Amino acid sequence: MSHSKQSWSPDGYSRHARFVSELGAPVVELLAPEAGERILDLGCGDGDLSVKLLQMGVEVVGVDSSPDFIAAACAKGIDARLMDGQDLTFDGEFHAVFSNAALHWMTRPSDVIAGVARALRPGGRFVAEFGGHGNVAAIVTAIRAVARIHGGDEKLAHPWYFPTTDEYAGLLEAAGFAVEEMALIPRPTPLPTGLAGWLETFRQPFFDQYPDDVRARVLTDVEELLRPALCDDAGQWSADYVRLRLRARLT
Ligand code: BEZ
User: Fold this and answer.
1) Ligand 1 centroid, distance to 183 Cα (angstroms)
2) Does residue 79 contact residue 64 with C-beta atoms inside 8 Å?
3) What is the pTM of this model?
4) Which residues does 125 contact at the CB level (< 8 Å), separation at least 6?
5) Atom from ligand 1 closest to the CA of residue 198
6) Is 206 helix (H, G, I), strand (E, B) or coil?
7) d(CA 224, CA 243)
8) What are the tens digits of pLDDT across the range 50-68?
9) 202 CB near ligand 1 (under 6 Å)
10) Going from the N-terminus, what domains does the chain have, and what CATH number goes with each?
11) Centroid of ligand 1 to alpha carbon of 39 (angstroms)
């Protein structure tokens, strides 16, 4: 996972965002890994899903652009390497490239896909899930609205890449992939530490632009704008996630 100003704390991530790997079962199922396969986990984070692949008998290599995540993944016994997913350096060695909840942090998708194609053996598969078009649209709109009120930099509201299926299929086909499955899947996602935990984990650079007293007010304003849409009567917050899930094969 990478963004120039985004930093990751494995502890904070565990507390606020463990659901990211816990909800990874459908994309692992789509990968259908076989024992003995060599698989690249692209944007492996702290290695939670890499460990699952390892337990399935896969020879897994993880890459991530966060040194803290790489250290956490290595501590779990993963062959994890510090590498930007937009500049992969592998050459024809993997049966599959797998990615969960990472590709939306990489805003040069053609470079990602070219690196994935290079990393795969002939006929290899690319199986991924990440934020698709419309992902966290309500959250982003609320952050933008509050930035207008408090005079912040609106560009910090949305650093991600959330493509449509047509756009992403076009990029894959241009790089020599045949798309076997692709869908946009709305998946409202309960947030274990509320909206504030999500915002502080994933949009920290936006809030860091304000002095402490204004920061608290900005956070409250974003919450109050979103409460009617994303918080239920029992006080449970959800994020308006839309997943783009795909399997493509190198032709
Ligand atoms: C996602 O998994 O869709 C996501 C996570 C953090 C920020 C933006 C999107």
Assistant:
1) 17
2) no
3) 0.94
4) 31, 95, 96, 97, 180, 247, 248, 249, 250
5) 6
6) helix
7) 25
8) 999 999 999 999 999 999 9
9) yes
10) 10-250 (3.40.50.150)
11) 23
